[in-house]
């Protein structure tokens, strides 16, 4: 029996690597002779860098950059020397996890540090770059990143704008003539885990701004500021990318990465499955077990369990999802290749208890899934 374990992280509880280890303990309790293949995954958000480093044996580099509020932070990135390829995760520099709840301010946080990481990769000699978007604290449409790479964003007095999304309302001109010329020889892919456009009801500010500290008034100002920025960008570039699917990812970073750095936007789970040779593992599996913190209707936009299930369906492989919780419209996931889905909690418990006991809960659920799988196998002719 060949069991493929390929979870994402369980937010605030376990990394994907730790989740895989917990799953394996449960599988082997039920089936000591099973062949267990561990392939931790991610969808482009927080944890994606570690999944790529583990899968490719890339070197883990550290560079001091600015966090989302302009403070120094040591951010990790990956370097695959033989392929001249860099892995950069936005959340390492400008992630929400680095800010205390009271510090979250979507109007003033900046993606400048991510641009500094890109510059470090260029200094190393990068010819290819995988940019992992997700988990951001920012809502500046990538303007900070562009500033770090040489763009000049000026007000009507010809002065540089302050960093942050709200300041974009005062943008008068955008000078990209000083963008780092090495960018134009760089092949870039940007991993996104959502398909939202930059603006409007499904845009970066409205959908994701509140979780980054934006009030209802802030959301309206930010959406207008990003609209103004997009208009000036369209004039500068001669093409308008505001409606691009994925432009709203990471506070609009998808917009800047595609419009100015020619990044191809790809579902993060597809990119990471390709790098981890997931299809090869899948072809040998009898059963696939995946999961993450929550499974619901929004998972259909590109979250790890659905990416796994869609590919597994093409190979006629059964997929069980173990989620911290099952949310609204999770049944829709059954139409995407998910065979069955289970929540981890085995009785009434607080969120704090559930997070503390996630490793044991995950192992227990895997053990029960394998026992049921063995029983059903015994009944087959």
TrEMBL record:
It comes from Vreelandella zhuhanensis. NCBIfam families: glycerate kinase. This is Glycerate kinase. It comes from the Bacteria. Its EC number is 2.7.1.-. InterPro entries: Glyc_kinase_flavodox-like_fold (IPR018193), Glycerate_kinase (IPR004381), Glycerate_kinase_RE-like (IPR018197), Glycerate_kinase_sf (IPR036129). Keywords: Kinase, Transferase. Coiled coil: none annotated. The lineage of its organism: Bacteria, Pseudomonadati, Pseudomonadota, Gammaproteobacteria, Oceanospirillales.
């Amino acid at each position: 029996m060949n069991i493929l374990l390929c979870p994402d992280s369980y937010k605030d509880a376990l990394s994907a690597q730790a989740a895989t280890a917990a799953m394996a303990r449960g599988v082997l309790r039920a089936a000591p002779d099973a062949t267990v293949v561990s392939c931790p995954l991610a969808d482009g958000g927080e944890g994606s860098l570690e999944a790529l480093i583990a899968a490719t044996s890339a070197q883990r580099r550290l560079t001091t950059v600015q966090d989302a509020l302009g403070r120094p932070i040591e951010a990790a990135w990956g370097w695959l020397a033989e392929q001249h390829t860099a892995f950069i995760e936005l959340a390492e520099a400008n992630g929400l996890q680095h800010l205390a709840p009271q510090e979250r301010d979507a109007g003033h946080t900046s993606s400048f540090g991510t641009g500094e990481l890109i510059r470090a990769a260029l200094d190393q000699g990068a010819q290819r770059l995988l940019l992992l978007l997700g988990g951001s604290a920012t809502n500046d449409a990538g303007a900070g990143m562009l500033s770090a790479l040489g763009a000049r964003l000026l007000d009507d007095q010809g002065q540089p704008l302050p960093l942050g999304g709200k300041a974009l309302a005062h943008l008068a001109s955008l000078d990209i003539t000083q963008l780092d010329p090495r960018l134009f020889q760089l092949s870039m892919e940007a991993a996104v885990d959502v398909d939202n456009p930059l603006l409007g009801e499904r845009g970066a500010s409205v959908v994701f701004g509140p979780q980054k500290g934006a009030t209802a008034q802030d959301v309206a100002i930010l959406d207008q500021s990003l609209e103004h920025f997009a208009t000036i960008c369209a004039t500068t570039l001669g093409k308008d990318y505001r409606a691009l699917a994925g432009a709203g990812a990471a506070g609009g970073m998808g917009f800047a990465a595609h419009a100015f750095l020619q990044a191809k936007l790809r579902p993060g789970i597809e990119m990471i499955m390709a790098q981890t040779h997931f299809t090869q593992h899948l072809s040998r599996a009898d059963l696939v077990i995946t999961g993450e913190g929550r499974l619901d209707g929004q998972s259909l936009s590109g979250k790890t369990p659905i990416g796994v299930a869609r590919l597994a369906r093409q190979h006629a492989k059964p997929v069980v999802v173990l989620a911290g919780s099952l949310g609204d419209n999770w049944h829709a996931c059954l139409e995407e290749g998910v065979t069955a889905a289970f929540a981890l909690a085995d009785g009434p418990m607080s969120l704090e208890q559930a997070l503390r006991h996630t490793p044991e809960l995950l192992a227990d659920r895997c053990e029960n899934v394998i026992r049921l799988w063995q029983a059903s196998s015994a009944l087959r002719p």
